[in-house]
Amino acid sequence: MMKAAKMDADGPPWQQNVRQRPALTSHHNRIWHGHLKSRDRSQLSINPDNITRRKKVTRKSTSWAGIPRCSHPCAQKRFALPSSASIAGLLGAQGRYLLISLFLVIALLTTIAKGKLGDYAGAIADYIRAIELQPRYSIVLKNAGDEKEERGLYQEAIADYDRAIAADPGYEVAYFARAGARYSLKDYQGAIDDYSKAISIDSHDADAYYGRGLAKSKIGDFHGAISDNNSAIHRNPDHAYAYYNRALAKYMTGDWTAAILDYSSAIQRNPDDANAYYGRALAKCKISECAAAILDYSSAIELNPNFPDAYYGRGSVKVGLKEYESAIADFSEALSRNHQFAGAYYCRGFAKEKLGDFSGARDDYRRALKLDPEKPVPALMKTS
Are the CB atoms for 293 and 285 separated by under 8 Å? Predict the structure, then answer.
């Protein structure tokens, strides 16, 4: 008689991947930190009267789940004047501003003229020369760093941010931008240090607390992340991403009921966030609210049909409810979107075994173990 797959020390196989971090995967991380990276590049989408309203952004969004980049009044800082702390006098600052503005206007006019003549390389060279005439001008340097960061040239962007900060040690936005570049390079402690410096200059910046909370989550300091997101929410009660990140941190500390409340707050402020429904579903599974978890997984899938983890999560809950045929359909949907999903093969094999499809089960187990040799070998694979 064929034996069912063994359950390892961490629980039944359909729960193994559900126990993974719900929001520290790369696709979630791109969404969270993409909000911070976009705040200096969305001036046209800012609504001063309602900073949480999302307007159409003209530049291409890079969010993984199709969620528009978030606007924030801090985006105004891209064009903010440097602080007076590093300027010898107001007149000198104004003089440098007018000078560089004049050179940039000249460069723009030259660009237009040379562009009409087809001399694009010459136009770009004129623009670069205009910048070189005042290399210590912090706004220009910071904006140059932004463009490099946008292209993924993080080390070069950091070099520009370093020069901007050297020119104006009180330029909070430059510290904030450098923190984002360091975060992208996985220098999380460096990012924390820069966010802390930005906060010391402008303690009202909710995004700086939120960014520092993200970095703290990445190094496992979940209590510190909760504290920083508390500060972000205190300064901006409608900061959906701060609720989301705090929910993750609470989930990781085992406070699942509180995590559900924060995910709900994030959904209330951003009802199109598939990842918030997914995270809330994971937390509901922890307190055995299976039917509610299935609804949340289904909402995540409706918002983002190409979400393999959501199909996998819903299938896992269905296995626990012994709805094996429906579970197999969900695992198959997950695998159609991610052919390397070892957990989905493993759990589909378990469901097939329960339905008596031992040949199909062995095939799925074999694929799962090839992709992830660390998974426990099911008893079915040890029989002839």
Answer: yes
Secondary structure string (H, E, C) spanning the chain? CCCCCCCECCECHHHHHHHCCCCCCHHHHHHHHHHHHHCCCCHHHCCCCCCCCCCCCCCCCCCCCCCCCCCCHHHHHHHCCCCHHHCCCHHHHHHHHHHHHHHHHHHHHHHHHHHHCCCHHHHHHHHHHHHHCCCCCHHHHHHHHHHHHHCCCHHHHHHHHHHHHHHCCCCHHHHHHHHHHHHHCCCHHHHHHHHHHHHHHCCCCHHHHHHHHHHHHHCCCHHHHHHHHHHHHHHCCCCHHHHHHHHHHHHHCCCHHHHHHHHHHHHHHCCCCHHHHHHHHHHHHHCCCHHHHHHHHHHHHHHCCCCHHHHHHHHHHHHHCCCHHHHHHHHHHHHHHCCCCHHHHHHHHHHHHHCCCHHHHHHHHHHHHHHCCCCCCCHHHHCC
- The model scores a pTM over 0.85: no
11 backbone dihedrals φ, ψ, rounded to 5°:
115, 180
Per-residue pLDDT tens, the chain, 384 aa: give them. 333 333 333 334 444 443 344 444 333 444 445 555 545 433 222 222 322 222 222 333 333 333 333 333 333 344 444 444 443 343 344 455 555 556 656 655 665 665 566 665 665 565 566 555 544 578 888 988 998 999 899 999 999 999 999 888 899 999 999 999 999 999 999 999 999 999 999 999 999 999 999 999 999 999 999 999 999 999 999 999 999 999 999 999 999 999 999 999 999 999 999 999 999 999 999 999 999 999 999 999 999 999 999 999 999 999 999 999 999 999 999 999 999 999 999 999 999 999 999 999 999 999 999 999 999 999 998 875
